[in-house]
Design a protein that fits this description.
Rossmann fold, alpha/beta, 17 helices, 3 domains, Nase_Mo-Fe_CF, 6-stranded parallel β-sheet, about 475 residues, globular
């Protein structure tokens, strides 16, 4: 069991985490015809928008209530109402996801009351658009928690109870999939293909593979132009099963179970052979079908990659900085391949998954702490997002870019990291980095007597003995 510690510093140096509202916005971006709305100042939204655009390199629909000095003092209900009506009139979204920021959270406004009154007062104008609220102050939590809250809000606010709770009343083929924030577009495509190979119908909530996958629409669309339709989310109450991937989306699975009686399974990771096997076995049980030959072939290829790659992982020392669930996925991956995770840094200490991370200590801190710990441990590889590149340069240690944001490399959303094909790809990527930066031995370095000094009388220790 890992010991979770937190650094005590007056300021964060080169922050590791991104904010809760950014995580919530990411979840809403995976819903079709949706519009995330930050309730706060323009600056709060601008920072998130810049990070999204640099990472995805796509047009990002993200709006703000643009609270000014007067609204900050007197209250932002009027700004919130005006923003909702403007968005409805100009963009015609099916869903508006309101994400609070530190500005309004610190003031302590009654957001639920404000939105309830606005819905009652403007029922006719807002007809056809669902408005959801997520409490996401920047001064606590991180992207993982904001994302998890938004997914739970989608389930709470949209899902309708099933007509009955008996198995006969359910759609035998419908499976709800709740992916984690750290799953890429390619990961979600891979999950969908795997579920469909068993003849099942996956409903993925949220689904950024349809909205942030790099496609270019033929016309200007002011909202998200892909993702899971609102009506599909409403109908999840009769799903045969729900699969949540990551503990930060467990609450959403529990809410779906409470609303529709949907049985659920939570996977802490899909980033290992064992986890992929359990996922495939569950799908076989749900569908009543044998495992397709394509998946058996993929498993065999992964086994071969593990055999080929473990030579390059054995004895390597790795430092990882990531959100809790992502940290667990990465640490189990490298540990399973024979590497030693000697430094682990995360963003928040609230997740129960941290105790299960296969390391001695998990530090809640920033990238400055990460650089210090990695330097002290003598690492062979740094694993974090693009903001870790300075630490990589200073330490002279290669960086494997993962998570969010990745803005100095192309194609991050098209990398696979889970299930048989994704784990194989990640083994190849990491092994190639190790090979490209291996420490070459010289005859001098292989000399067994090179560290032996001389005695006080000038003779070597070997001669003395």
């Amino acid at each position: 069991m890992a010991v979770v510690t937190a650094t005590q510093k007056a300021a964060s140096v080169n922050p590791l985490k991104s904010s809760q509202p950014l995580g919530a916005a990411l979840a809403f971006l995976g819903v079709a015809e949706a519009m995330p709305l930050f309730h706060g100042s323009q600056g709060c939204t601008s920072f998130a928008l810049v990070l999204f655009v640099r990472h995805f390199k796509e047009t990002i629909p993200l709006q703000t209530t643009a609270m000014d000095e007067v609204a900050t003092i007197l209250g932002g209900a009027d700004h919130l109402e005006e923003a909702l009506l403007n968005l409805k009139n100009r963009t015609r979204p099916k869903l508006i996801g309101v994400c609070t920021t530190a500005l309004v959270e610190t003031r302590g406004e009654d957001f639920w009351g404000d939105i309830t009154l606005i819905k009652q007062k403007r029922a006719q104008e807002l007809a056809g658009t669902d408005v959801l609220l997520v409490h996401t102050p920047e001064f606590e939590g991180a992207i993982e928690e904001g994302y998890g809250k938004a997914v739970a809000a989608l389930v709470d606010g949209l899902v309708q109870p099933a007509a009955g709770t008996d198995a006969a009343d359910r759609s035998a083929s419908k499976v709800a999939i709740l992916p984690g924030w750290h799953h890429t577009v390619a990961d979600i495509d891979l999950i969908r293909d795997t579920v469909e190979s068993f003849g099942l119908e996956p409903v993925i909530v949220p689904d950024i593979s349809g909205s942030l996958d790099g496609t270019v629409p033929g016309r200007w669309i002011p909202t998200t132009y892909g993702g899971t339709p609102v009506e599909a989310i409403r109908g999840l109450g009769d799903a045969a099963h729900c699969i949540a991937i990551g503990r930060h989306v467990r609450k959403a699975a529990e809410r779906l179970s409470a609303i529709g009686g949907v049985p659920f399974t939570v996977f802490d990771t899909l980033g290992s052979l064992e986890a992929a096997d359990r996922f495939v076995a569950l799908l076989a049980t749900i569908s009543g079908r044998p495992v397709p030959a394509k998946l058996r072939r993929g498993r065999s290829r992964l086994q071969d990659a593990m055999l080929d790659g473990h030579f390059h992982f054995g004895g390597r020392r790795v430092a990882i900085a990531a959100e809790p669930d992502h940290l667990y996925q990465l640490a189990t991956f490298f540990g399973g391949m024979g590497a030693e995770v000697v430094a682990a840094v995360t963003t928040t200490g609230h997740s129960s998954i941290l105790e299960a991370v296969p390391v001695e200590t998990v530090t809640v801190g920033d990238l400055d702490d990460f650089e210090t710990l990695a330097g002290q441990a003598g690492c062979d590889l740094l694993v974090t997002h693009s903001h870790g590149r300075q630490a990589s340069e200073r330490l002279g240690v290669p960086l494997m870019r993962v998570g969010f944001p990745i803005f100095d490399r192309l194609g991050s959303q098209h990398r696979r990291t889970i299930l048989y094909d994704g784990v194989r790809d990640q083994i190849i990527e990491a092994a190639n980095i190790f090979q490209a930066h291996q420490r070459l031995h010289t005859p001098e370095s292989l000399d067994p007597f090179r560290d032996r000094g001389e005695t006080h009388d000038g003779h070597s220790q070997v001669a003395h003995h």
